Fold:
Amino acid sequence: MIHPSDDLQSRAFRRAILSGSEFEERIGYACAVVDGDRVHVSGTTGFDYTTMTIADDVVEQAEQCLRNVGAALAEAGCTFADVVRVRYLLPDRADFEPCWPVLRRCFGEVRPAATMMVCGLADPRMRIEIEVDARRPSTAGRPARPVSPPSG
Structure:
């Protein structure tokens, strides 16, 4: 049953967001997908997609992951405050705790559901990958919130 206040137009809207990463073209995926009021950001690594470089340090990679995620969220009309689910993927569980302060800056007030998994990543230089799901704020009678990208 559809509630009268549902925005039918936004529920039917689907759009792919591309970051410009060579991986999107080579593998065949989008950085993020806006599907109505939901935003699904693909697993995002610490690559700087403009230079296709990646830092060795896991904390620097986490910061770049969040900058990449923040850019996708912004293009979708969201901020970190709209994130409802986050998944952290790391090849080495010991790398997770050093990233906590960086992650807390983005998600500490938001408190999304979260999961950390230890698994292999596509490139051995990758030490963390972050995936998020968000819900776009209603545009009816509500001003857009400013985007607060993580500081490095």
Q: What stands out?
A: The two ends are 46 Å apart (CA to CA). The chain is about 25% helix and 25% strand. The beta strands are 14-17, 32-35, 38-45, 47-48, 53-54, 83-90, 113-118, 129-135. Helices lie at 8-11, 22-28, 58-75, 96-107.
